[in-house]
Amino acid sequence: MEKKKVKKILATIGTVLLYIFMAICLLAVLLTIFSKRSEDGAVSLFGHEMRLVLTGSMEKSDMTDVSGFDIKDIPANSLIVTENVPEDEEEAEEWFANLKEGDVLTFRYIIGGGQETITHRIILIEPQAKGFKLTLRGDNRTENEGVQIVYTDELTNPEPGNYVVGKVVFTSLALGEIVYILQKPVGIALVVIVPASIIIILQVIRIVNVFAAEKRKKAAEREAKQSDEIELLKKRLAEMEMRQGVPEGTMSEDGPSETPQETPVAQAALPPLAAHGEEAARAGAADVAAEEALQAEPSENEAAAEEDPQTEPLEEVPAEEQISAPETQNEGTMSEEADQNRDLTGPDPAMKTSMEVEQ
């Protein structure tokens, strides 16, 4: 679990660094394509300029109360974004008219024969016949520090080299530090090369893990396939044993089983034998019933002898012959029934005619 957590954390860090690196690269490309450099080297893009504040003149100080201002303080090496003065004259007049005390402006100012870019706060706005007179000063100042005066109208400006570039609308110390580091070779190595190397290493590790997972997956598939083939071979072997008359389960790794089982052939032959036995049992039972009936009833010959003593009794048929020859018994019975019928109905007409002829 711990290894999985570490891998997950490293993967997340690598992803974040990758996105940061891509964002920096994209920003650099956009700045290269769409930006242009101002006189002091600031990057100008879509009516705004980005530059670094190199001094601490606008850092927080007890000499200035900034509680009611939008821009509180600007530490050294901060990145600032300024909204440029419109190029159209009427729009520029309206833009300057909207300025108020406490706003922070970036302006070009001539000091000691050279022109510098300064970012200070407006402490006083004085309307002029045309335009305004702006008095600016840094927040982190001394009591004897001077002020800067800039006129907004170009025609009435006594110092044409002093003019307003724009108003500060955004500041960031973190971005400023990154940009400041990127301007140096060591910074480029720390911010670009090191993250890029980490990202490459993480990607290589991820690729290796993917290949390893794929290899494990293929090994598992091979093992599963071999298991399926073994099971299939076992089934085929069982089918061959069944076809050869060797029941399944009688063969094992140690040899034949001690308890034999009936083969399917023997089991299939049992039903006809059972049926034959049942028929023989039924026939024997019928014979026994016939014998008992014969023994219980007096024979017809004995009955005739009692009625007519002169009549010679018929020879009795042994019981064994009656049991073994049921058809003969049936025929004798039918003959006796015919004689009784003649006694009751009189002599047969054919016999009567023969008697008359004899007489």
Question: What are the salient characteristics of this protein?
Answer:
single chain, 359 residues, disordered C terminus, alpha+beta, two-stranded antiparallel sheet, 11 strands
What is the strand arrangement across the widest sheet?
1-2-3-4-9-5-6-7-8
Mean pLDDT reading: 74
Order of helices and strands: HEEEEHEEEEEHHEEHHHHH
Number of helices: 9
- The appropriate CATH architecture of the domain at 39-182 is Ribbon
Helix content: 40-55%
Distance between the termini: 136 Å
Which segments are poorly predicted (pLDDT under 50) over 5 or more consecutive residues? 252-277, 299-315, 319-331, 349-359
In CATH's first tier, which class of the domain at 39-182 applies?
A: Mainly Beta
Number of strands: 11
CATH superfamily of the domain at 39-182: Umud Fragment, subunit A
Largest sheet: 9 strands, antiparallel
Shape: rod-shaped
Radius of gyration: 65 Å
Strand content: 15-25%
What's this model, at a glance?
By secondary structure, this protein is an alpha+beta fold. It has 9 helices and 11 strands. Helix 3 packs across helix 4 (185-243).
Description:
The protein is of the alpha+beta class and 359 residues long. Among the domains are: 1-34 and 184-237; 39-182, Umud Fragment, subunit A (Ribbon). The chain is 52% helix and 18% strand. The protein has helices at 2-34, 89-97, 173-182, 185-243, 264-296, 300-307, 319-324, 326-345, 349-358, and strands at 36-37, 43-45, 48-53, 78-84, 104-111, 114-127, 132-137, 148-151, 163-172, 251-252, 255-256. The strands form two sheets. The chain has a nine-stranded antiparallel sheet. A two-stranded antiparallel ribbon has the order 10-11. The longest helix is centred in the middle third of the chain and has 59 residues, at 185-243. The chain is rod-shaped, with a radius of gyration of 65 Å. The model is unreliable at 252-277, 299-315, 319-331 and 349-359 (pLDDT under 50).
